[in-house]
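For anyone still unconvinced, we reproduce a single protein record, the chain in one-letter code, the fold tokenised, and leave readers to judge:
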Amino acid sequence: MSQAHDFFERERERLSREISSDFDDFLLSTNTLNRKLEEVLGMTKEYETIAALWSSFYKLMRESGLEGEGAEEQTALAASQPTKSA
């Protein structure tokens, strides 16, 4: 009975160490995954800022381009109309 009890104790200790080691590995992997997710979220925020900046630039250029085209059309229209002498 003593040998069976000793074997049980040794197996229990071995399995406990193995489980503890596996949990440590799992925790390390989970922490690594968490850091990577935080990096991805940080990069996404950076891209949102850059995208907003380019969007503002695009809107400004589009508006100034439309205004410029409108002014050119008005100038061309005014030049093509005959002037009235008073």
Summary: Helices lie at 2-80.
